[in-house]
Amino acid sequence: MCQAGEDYAVSAQREPPPVPRPGREQKCVKCAEGLPVVVIRAGDAFCRDCFKAFYVHKFRAMLGKNRLIFPGEKVLLAWSGGPSSSSMVWQVLEGLSQDSAKRLRFVPGVIYVDEGAACGQSLQDRVKTLAEVKLILQNTGFPWHVVALEEVGGSAHVVTCGNLGGDTHQGHILAYWSHPVGLLPWALAFPLFQRAGMASASISILTSWKVFSLPPSVLCCASQEPAGTEEAYKTAVDSFLQQQHVLGSEGCASPAQGEDQSHPTHSQEPLGMAGFPTAAQTEALSRLFSSIKTLTAKEELLQTLRSHLIVHVARTHGYCKVMTGESCTRLAIKLMTNLALGRGAFLAWDTGFSDERHGDVVLVRPMRDHTLKEVAFYNRLFGVPSVFTPAIDTKAPEKASIHRLMEAFILRLQTLFPSTVSTVYRTSEKLVKAPREGCASGPASPSCLLCMCALDIDTADSATAFGAQSSSHLSQMLPAEAGIPTTPCCGAGEGQAQSCHRGVGRRGDTQACVIEQLCYGCRVNMKDLPSLDPLPPYVLAEAQLRSQRAWVSKEIQEYLITDDEEEEEESRAIKQEGENTGIGL
Prior knowledge:
Blueprint: H1 8-12, E1 38-41, E2 44-46, H2 48-66, E3 74-78, H3 83-95, E4 107-114, H4 116-119, H5 123-140, E5 144-148, E6 156-162, E7 176-178, E8 183-185, H6 186-195, E9 204-210, H7 230-249, H8 259-262, H9 279-291, H10 295-316, E10 321-323, H11 328-340, H12 347-351, E11 354-355, E12 362-364, H13 372-382, H14 402-416, H15 420-429, H16 465-482, E13 490-492, E14 498-500, H17 507-515, H18 520-526, H19 537-555, H20 563-584
Parallel strand pairs: 3-4, 3-10, 4-5, 10-12
Antiparallel strand pairs: 1-2, 6-9, 7-8, 11-12, 13-14
Helix pairs in contact: 3-13, 11-14, 11-15
């Protein structure tokens, strides 16, 4: 308490006691001999050699503990140029060298995604960045692939078509007609005009042709081989070592140092204008991101499109695993961010070591035990090259997005309580990948159109967040449709020409077709996109295909014979046969 006559001026001039610093006599906590150069945590001072051994052991232990990457498999390293992914590539590079004690046994490749168009970079800055990227990738000696984010969309141009039944439409197999309901191939679009009673020779309309850069199959979960057991992994390792021994005795190079590494194949030349996407593609991608209202939705869509592009390149070039450089700090921030975005059901996939949502391509995170502080120290001490590229949230204020706000919150809390990141990270390790109650697991279960996770929707339960969202969506659509006169579903034409005009010309059907195939988190993000037209064509095409399959499946459901009906018929036949036998006796 305050006391009378206390001299506050004297106390204000007092200086705080000096913070104790480690003396020069302090030694490394590992070897107790070398001088420490890095202090990771309070009291954990490492010398240069011990810190390197500690860092490398974390990377190797993460791969060895999970045993998902089998010897001889092709692994694609997703490199963004940042510190964590650069350190990951460096670890793989050193693990494949002759000096490594326990060499890695997979065949690596590197992919770099140019996101300059989405981040607002100029063409000159992108050329400069790609020149640095090419120099680093060439020094690795790995096969590398440089792709632009614009490749998720297609170049579009408007042409005037006359006499739709003629032979003047070259390349119509790749061309898709922009229909109000969605994207329909030309083979399906042309019969719509014929069934409507219009002569093909008199049709002259404007059509928008879009050439697909990514196929709609990238949004499908491909068939996945069953995960190998521990015995299968040991058998694969023994077989690989025997093959290495045979090749070594014959004087041949090992598969890990084969022709792919000594003569890397470049998928795309980054220098010059030949490797850049067209101006129409860049403009389409810029229009898509500029139309999104919030930075949170922009970051989520950018992550989604990037993952689609990486998975497509991995499938095209035969990679069955994809390594990402997400660190422990980044995963802790991602866990809290996804909770705030309504993606709590998918935390095990979004932050775990492995992510099998794509089926044949598995995403792994071998850097998830390294903190950003450890990564920064390692890159600084051992000269790991990296490329600085501005992100979509560069120079954004703290409260500009949920990602930035959660990042600032976690990092600020980490400075006050050093165990914050590790506590959140350990929580993510305890999450189990389990299907939702009442939903089937496996590739046949419905998945989100964008993030490829299982649909976490429940229309029957109005108490859930999705139920409230659905009720709000219906209440908004009903007043808008109140003034629209309803037309019969099918209209009879002349003779046998009958056509179904269900939903034709109604712009809301396309949006409803896409929204109903999204999970809760993706639906919330799509609220910030006023129109779905700027979305990549393969997304709209896959939504249309899924909607058509669901409608056809519903129509023929009553004609299908299920397993229960077959068992019931068999039991009825056995019972009838038993009764006939009893009568005969």
